[in-house]
């Protein structure tokens, strides 16, 4: 497996692959990889001739008050996981390699970024879409793999690719969970043992919301009320948002009459965790 730290090194490898007529899969990550990332990489390996995994903690998607400085890192362990999963290239640049001091081009997806995480993190998706565009250009990917755990991100990237006529298929992958239900996340490492226990309210609320919808409930207030009650019963939890939005447009809905995303962000102590389910109709 190759490790590229410069854009030119990565492009050179990709040029060779493309010259041989091979398809390329891209898996963008911020590192500190776990089984969620591994599932994306394995799917890419199964579906593409060659796979590039990027490990890049993208500074421009973090606001100054967020956790860029403390975000966990372990590049040595990441490379072992990536190699074992069967990928061919790791792209691991320094921020200065991707962002020139006078860089002034950013990708801003509107509307679909105005709710959910876009509300609390107003500059976040501009940073995500800018770096994802760059990674797609560098890798010349035929397919790019994203987890449903970051469901709004998946919808935003899909919309960007459609609106900008980019030549890449965006593949969404299911949420991988711990045995007790907690969605796997690099940020779970921030949790103390008591917080780890408290964090189960997210997946419990997701299960309850999904169960109600399976039983036929469609009223957002009823569904979200039941979910919020589970979270509010936990003293270590503080809700950022629990919302139901249309899955295609990420706009609030009162009654689910087509596919919806029911998503939440919840602080457990100081750690902000997300979880969701999509109810297809
Ligand atoms: N539990 C999971 N199941 C499926 N995909 C996941 C999971 N966790 C992360 N991913 C996906 O992996 C990709 C990289 O995510 P990222 O590096 O931010 O990992 P993370 O563990 O979600 O970190 P964070 O703590 O920042 O939420 C994204 O497409 C994300 O949706
Ligand atoms: C897609 C991504 C790697 C872009 O930095 C990041 O937002 C993430 O890890 O989900
Ligand atoms: N997985 C989302 C990246 C972030 O929280 O910045």
TrEMBL record:
Residues involved in beta-alanine binding: 61
Family matches, as Gene3D superfamilies: HUPs, Pantoate-beta-alanine ligase, C-terminal domain
Listed pathway(s): Cofactor biosynthesis; (R)-pantothenate biosynthesis; (R)-pantothenate from (R)-pantoate and beta-alanine: step 1/1
SUPFAM superfamilies: Nucleotidylyl transferase (SSF52374)
Keyword list, A-Z: ATP-binding, Cytoplasm, Ligase, Nucleotide-binding, Pantothenate biosynthesis
Residue sites binding (R)-pantoate per the record: 61, 153
Protein's cellular compartments: Cytoplasm
GO cellular component terms, semicolon-separated: cytosol
Active site: 37
Source superkingdom: Bacteria
Record Pfam families: Pantoate_ligase
Additional facts recorded: The reaction proceeds by a bi uni uni bi ping pong mechanism.
Protein purpose: Catalyzes the condensation of pantoate with beta-alanine in an ATP-dependent reaction via a pantoyl-adenylate intermediate.
Subunit structure: Homodimer.
Family affiliation: Belongs to the pantothenate synthetase family.
Protein name: Pantothenate synthetase
UniProt source species: Ellagibacter isourolithinifaciens
Primary gene name: panC
């Amino acid at each position: 497996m190759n490790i590229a730290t410069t854009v030119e090194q990565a492009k050179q490898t990709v040029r060779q692959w493309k010259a041989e007529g091979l398809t390329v899969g891209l898996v963008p990550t911020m590192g500190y990889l776990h089984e969620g990332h591994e599932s994306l990489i394995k799917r890419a390996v199964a579906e593409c001739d060659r796979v590039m995994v990027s490990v890049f903690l993208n500074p421009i998607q973090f606001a100054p008050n967020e956790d860029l400085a403390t975000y966990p890192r372990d590049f040595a362990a990441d490379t072992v996981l990536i190699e074992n999963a069967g990928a061919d290239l790791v792209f691991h640049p320094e921020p200065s390699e991707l962002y020139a001091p006078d860089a002034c081009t950013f990708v801003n997806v509107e509307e679909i970024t105005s709710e959910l995480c876009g509300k609390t993190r107003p500059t976040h998706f501009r940073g995500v879409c800018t770096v994802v565009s760059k990674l797609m250009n560098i890798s010349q990917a035929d397919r790019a793999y994203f987890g449903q755990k970051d469901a709004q991100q998946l919808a935003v990237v899909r919309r960007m690719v459609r609106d900008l006529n980019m030549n890449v298929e965006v593949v969404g992958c299911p949420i991988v969970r711990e045995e007790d239900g907690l969605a796997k996340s690099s940020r779970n490492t921030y949790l103390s043992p008591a917080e780890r226990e408290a964090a189960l309210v997210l997946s419990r609320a997701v299960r309850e919301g999904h169960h109600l919808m399976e039983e036929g409930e469609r009223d957002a207030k009823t569904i979200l009320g039941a979910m919020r009650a589970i979270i509010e019963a936990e003293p270590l939890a503080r809700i950022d948002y629990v919302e139901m939005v249309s899955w295609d447009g990420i706009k609030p809905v009162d009654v689910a009459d087509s596919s919806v995303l029911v998503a939440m962000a919840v602080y457990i102590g100081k750690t902000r965790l997300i979880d969701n389910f999509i109810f297809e109709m």
